[in-house]
Amino acid sequence: MTRRIAVLDAPTNLGLRPPTATSVPGCAKAPGALRDHDLLARLRARDAGCLTPPRYDPGDWRPGDGVCHAREISGYSALLADRIGAIIDRGEFPLVLGGDCSVLLGSALAMHRLGEAVGGRIGLVFVDGHSDFRHPGNASYVGAAAGEDLALVTGRGQADLAAIEGRRPYFRDIDVVVLGIRAQDEYRLDLQAAGITTRPVPALRAEGAARTAQWAHEQLADCAGYWVHIDVDVLDPAVMPAVDAPDPGGIAFAELEILLAGLVDTPHCLGVELTVFDPDYDPDGSYAAEIVNTVVAGLAPVSTPEAAPPRLLPASPPPQTPRPQRSRPAGMPGALSLLGSVGGAAGASGGLGPRRTASGGGPATTGGPPSNGGPVSDGPASDEGPSNLGPAVSGAAALTGDPVAGGAAVSAGGPVVDGSAPGAPVQPGRASGRPERPAVEPVGPPAGAGPGLLRRVSPLDDDTPEDAPRSADGPSPSSAGIA
Prior knowledge:
This protein has about 475 residues and is α/β, with parallel strands linked by helices. It has helices at about 30-35, 40-45, 70-90, 105-120, 150-155, 160, 190-195, 200-205, 210-220, 255-265, 285-300, 300-305, 335-340, 395-400, and strands at about 5-10, 45-50, 95-100, 120-125, 175-180, 195-200, 225-230, 270-275, 390-395, 415-420, 425-430.
């Protein structure tokens, strides 16, 4: 099944240093810039509003004073955790638009609350160009929470940020996977000493984005679920310079798209946050457009029902010998007339016996809810996105308006009409006109992998209204990349 995405703006810039003595960080404008490129419409997402942050005012902060804006960030994080928790309680998938990386504190607090509620641990997939692991134990002083967020959410640093509500740590070291840091990251040895699993860019590219997503999921197999943090500075400055601290050696948009799709293509992924994009460095909006394209394609496994895969249709049954017609008294209605009120054209499609689905399975049930085009697969999405192959519909089913389980019906020896290809030639006993899709490597982990205490709701339990928005956008790799 799919989950409806809810987009929540968290336009805080409290965790960054001022770019100049007379300016403020521009990442607070990021949610608006991304919305301007029809992000919500393309995701068919619910607008979960905006959590307005406190004023950015470093005042007379000096090195040695601790984290700047600590009191404001702490209060904002608690409110953000409330909003994220409310989205998850509705059965929706939160997409949080930062803002700087200090939004991770609010997400982490929400995940710790959730883990306590379900009786399990929640993990973190940290996709970032920098480790953000500065803390009093490895630096002479701290100051910008956006450069210390991973340290804070793993319990390192001052208590008013690392232990909000007395919860410390929000994520255990063994429940964190770091992806995309540069090979020369200054805190890489500290991460290793802490037991935090990492895969820097060289290893990520060597293994591939799809396998890296699978690997990250396997590292968190003991968790009830996980949250995904994405700092767009994981991208190389050649394709994404609009960040506060660009660092060469990053990945391409296409790689981020595949990585994101693999990470979210499982019910264990609880939500995503996107941080650090600064529209002040994007005057024509081209980088915002690329980010939106990547996010829409990467979140397709969450928002887009997968088309039913090609099925082998059952062979046409042998022709049945017609039974001799018995005479009946004058005025007695015929059998088809009697059946018209309960079976419609059932007699025309092969009699009163159980109908068989296009998958070649057993009888199709008639007491369940009507299908909306076929079940949604819990399996991994392919690299080429959802199939456009429509369900095969028999003439009888089309006439009666009676869909069969799986969204396709086959008449007894009759032709099969491919509903996705109007006007295509009809051939008896097989889907018409379309070649079978080649087998491809899955983008991400199978939905059933890992024990996971947070399960996907089955289609019969899904209380999402049928008219709820669903995304029809499939993954379309970004054109930008690194040569």
